[in-house]
Design a protein that fits this description.
Rossmann fold
Length: about 350
């Protein structure tokens, strides 16, 4: 039988905890760890195992849950900077409905640390969940606004995936060592991001474009604008590998629906997931650029080509812009500001 947890790297302790919980799960779990640590992947794999328990066709339940297409695995992902009150109301409503195909349903709420205003609405259903409903929540941290929610959940800690672990995984899957080294640094601890970059032949070109910005930036607004536009054009083109994979997923969906007539495999839900993936890819691309740029500045400080004081200010600015990106800032304006003020 398929082991849903197979292939999750860098999370030995968390996976062990989840394996032991499958046979007698608690009503709610809170996965806490940095962005890209694999919490979302672990959540889908945990849900797959939970939904398969007691089923006459466990492999089917696992396959649908891992693809985020199971009718009893309901995903709530913030549409903007935070989970909205309307989404919280829908979580409460869905939690009280009966499962469709499994003997339970799993509700997955992502980025609950960004839900200070809507979190209180979710609290009551966590305190008194229906017997057939289980919750998996993820958060990068536990701010004061969600401490009560955290107290109602079993917390599972996730570690950042190290570049060394990513490097080993990439080399083991056939990536050349030089390319694997770049991707391990660029992926920001995300195995999904790392594998996507490994399938993208132009990833190194984008990485180099960021590291070579010193050759085109002169402190002027016009140079900063041109550099920002060039980077954005490259990011637009970087969606090709993901779109190819999504197109294949859509074709597979159509084939399964035609062959088996499976419920819960609506094209609309798949298209919504694809849109989320594209948004996430764009943010990941910009964060990769910030990593490449930060590395270039650090190397310049070390070899003396960049003044240490100016370099320190530039690194602080890169960090600030990276944080603004996570808050859905205007990409073009953020990069123009960054490129105009860098001292490299």
């Amino acid at each position: 039988m398929t082991d849903s947890f197979e292939g999750i790297i860098g999370q030995t302790s968390a996976v062990s905890t989840l394996r032991n919980a499958v046979s007698a799960p608690l009503p709610a779990y809170l996965f806490v760890g940095p962005a890209g640590c694999g919490a979302r992947t672990a959540a889908t794999r945990f849900a797959a195992e939970l939904l398969a328990v007691g089923s006459q066709d466990p492999e089917r339940h696992k396959r649908l849950a891992i693809a985020e297409e199971h009718p009893d695995f309901i995903l709530f992902e913030r549409n903007g900077p935070a989970l909205s009150v309307d989404q919280a109301k829908e979580i409460v409503r869905v939690a009280t409905t009966s499962p469709y195909e499994s003997n339970k349903k799993v509700i997955f709420v992502e980025d609950v640390h960004l839900a200070p205003s809507s979190a209180p609405m979710i609290l009551k259903v966590l305190e008194e969940p229906p017997p057939t409903t289980l919750f998996i929540l993820t958060a990068e941290e536990i701010p004061v606004g969600i401490t009560t929610i955290a107290s109602r959940c079993a917390t599972v800690e996730f570690d950042a995936i190290s570049p060394e672990e990513l490097f080993e995984q990439l080399v083991g899957s056939g990536t050349e060592q030089e390319t694997a080294s770049m991707i391990a640094a660029a992926a920001n601890g995300s195995i999904d991001r790392a594998m996507l970059l490994a399938s993208d032949e132009t990833a190194i070109d984008r990485w180099n474009a960021w590291t070579e910005l010193h050759s085109v930036l002169d402190g002027s607004g016009s140079a900063a604008a041109k550099a920002a536009d060039r980077i954005l054009v490259m990011i637009d083109a970087a969606t090709a590998p993901l779109q190819n994979r999504q197109e294949q997923e859509s074709q597979d969906l159509d084939e399964r629906a035609e062959r088996f007539g499976e419920r819960g495999l609506g094209r609309r839900s798949l298209e919504d997931r694809h849109k989320r993936e594209l948004r996430r890819l764009r943010t990941d691309e910009l964060l990769m650029g910030m990593t490449a740029l930060g590395n270039a500045v650090s190397k310049g400080i070390m070899n003396g080509s960049i003044d240490s004081l100016s370099g320190a200010k530039s690194l602080a600015l890169v960090t600030s812009v990276a944080q603004d990106l996570r808050r859905n800032g205007n990409e073009r304006l953020l990069m123009q500001r960054l490129f105009a003020n860098l001292k490299i």
